[in-house]
Amino acid sequence: MTDRIKRDFYARDKEEQAEFLKMTWCNTCMKEDLGMTNPQEYEIQGKIFIDGKCKKCNDVVTTEMAFDDEE
Ligand SMILES: [Zn+2]
User: Fold this and answer.
1) What global pTM score does this model have?
2) How far apart, in whole angstroms, are the C-alpha atoms of residue 22 and residue 36?
3) What is the pLDDT of residues 7-17, one digit of tens each?
4) Is residue 63 within 8 Å of residue 25, measured between CB atoms?
5) Which of 3, 18, 41, 52 is disulfide-compatible with 9, CB 3.0–4.6 A?
6) Reduced to 3 states, what is the DSSP secondary structure of residue 23?
7) CA distance 51 to 54
8) Ligand 1 centroid from CA 70, angstroms
């Protein structure tokens, strides 16, 4: 079971948003940085992901956010 916690992507500052929308990897196009639209941010087991749609092919692209988080 995975708990998916919804987060607010638009709560980030504008520059950060722009960066995440640009820095993508699309498995369908096999290309990076094509960009995404319709971002949805969520958290699973302490990891944060952003789902969006590839600007080129409209498939789902997922970005995992990396943190240097030491607990
Ligand atoms: Zn694509």
Assistant:
1) 0.84
2) 7
3) 999 999 999 99
4) yes
5) 41
6) coil
7) 10
8) 34
CA of 18 relative to ligand 1 center, distance in Å: 18
> 11-14, long-range: CB within 8 Å, 24+ apart, which pairs?
none
Token readout for 34 is 């094509």
Could you list the beta-strand ranges (E) of the chain: 4-7, 25-26, 31-32, 36-44, 47-54, 60-65
Say how far residue 36 (Cα) sits from the centre of its chain: 9
9, 40, 16, 35: which is closest to 24 by C-alpha? 35
Distance 28 CA to ligand 1 centre (A): 5
